[in-house]
Automatic annotation (TrEMBL):
GO terms for molecular function: ABC-type vitamin B12 transporter activity; ATP binding; ATP hydrolysis activity. It catalyses: an R-cob(III)alamin(out) + ATP + H2O = an R-cob(III)alamin(in) + ADP + phosphate + H(+). Residues 1-29, 276-310 are annotated as: Disordered. It is a peripheral membrane protein. This is Cobalamin import ATP-binding protein BtuD. It comes from Haloarcula rubripromontorii. Its EC number is 7.6.2.8. Residues 30-268 form the ABC transporter domain. Keywords: ATP-binding, Cell membrane, Ion transport, Iron, Membrane, Nucleotide-binding, Transport. Residues 1-24 have a biased composition (Polar residues). Residues 285-310 have a biased composition (Basic and acidic residues).
Length: 310
């Protein structure tokens, strides 16, 4: 378990009382409280007693090297992996006590394992996102149709809506799956590496969709991103993990430091401020025994945990 002292919204305030911090914590739409997550094939937990909460109406990005536990943590928050200990709260309720449809009306998930029949059309796939809002024998309503149209428009899928999913490129499939999740019309959206394996054009399209959601709605988004610069550009808050432990959390400019890149990602890099967030210029991979060579003004790994929210 990591030993940071920040509250679980990712921003620690030295002026908050313990009671005040705890109260704000439970007001968050999605909270993981001291969660322990593991797989039956492994002897040790992947996540061992970490706490995190998503800020309402904001984008929280989970970043870290391969195997750091970020996707496992997202699965725990999405009720795809049951905690061995601790709890996940969705709108203040233990997610384990909620029925599947009740969860799906509040929380949408885009996982890396999404599959569908190749013969289904994009439009029909997007309509599947409406299943939490309908009974088994209910027909499609005007509300369903409107939600699907909004989702297709936002995801930019109008030109491929009649095509079969099996005929699409990887980037087009990803946009179709995003449209399906958007059609659920949830208050919380979890995305697991939505830009991985996409070309630059489709990466930017996905990021623009997330930015639009953040700027034009009150939706709460938690996203796992492989690219730390993308995360810094996109996120309001970042959480950095290594070996299943949260190493730092806070604003992108406070998390993405030369020291953190050395300690968490094991690279030597230069970080500069830009209008689109911190820019990372990788220099070389670090190896055991290397001394950190970043400038004296680099933040300590847990510097972000001392930031007071504005």
């Amino acid at each position: 378990m990591s030993q940071n002292n920040s509250n679980s919204d990712g921003i620690a305030s030295t002026n908050d009382t313990a009671a005040g911090s705890q109260s704000g914590r439970w007001d968050r739409p999605l909270v993981g409280d001291d969660v322990v997550l593991s797989y039956s094939s492994a002897d040790d937990p992947v996540i061992d007693g970490e706490s995190i909460s998503a800020e309402p109406g904001a984008v929280t990005a989970l970043v870290g090297p391969n195997g750091s536990g970020k996707s496992t943590l997202l699965k725990g928050l999405a009720n795809q992996l049951e905690p061995d200990a601790g709890s996940v709260l969705l709108d203040g309720q233990d997610i384990q006590t909620l029925e599947t449809k009740a969860i799906a009306r509040k929380l949408g998930l885009l996982s890396q394992e999404s599959t569908s029949p190749n013969s289904i059309s994009v439009e029909d796939l997007v309509f599947h996102g409406r299943y939490p809002h309908r009974g088994f024998f209910d027909s499609v309503t005007e509300e369903d149709e409107a939600a699907v149209e909004r989702a297709i428009d936002l995801a930019g899928c109008g030109h491929i809506r009649e095509r079969e999913v099996g005929s699409l490129s990887g980037g087009q499939k990803q946009l179709a799956w995003i449209a399906m999740v958007l059609a659920q019309d949830t208050d919380v959206l979890l995305l697991d590496e939505p830009t991985t394996f996409l070309d630059l054009h489709h990466q930017l399209e996905v990021m623009e969709i997330i930015e639009t959601l953040r700027d034009e709605s009150d939706i709460t988004i938690v996203v796992v991103l492989h690219d730390i610069e993308q995360a810094a550009r996109l996120a309001d808050r970042m959480v950095a993990l290594k070996d299943g432990e949260i190493q730092a959390r806070g604003r992108p400019e406070d998390v993405v430091t030369e020291q953190l890149l050395a300690d968490v990602f094991e690279i030597e890099a230069e970080v500069s401020a830009t209008a689109h967030g911190p820019r990372v210029n990788p220099i070389r991979a670090r190896h055991d025994g290397d001394e950190h060579t970043a400038g004296d003004d680099s933040a300590e790994p847990d510097r972000a945990e001392e930031v007071v929210a504005e």
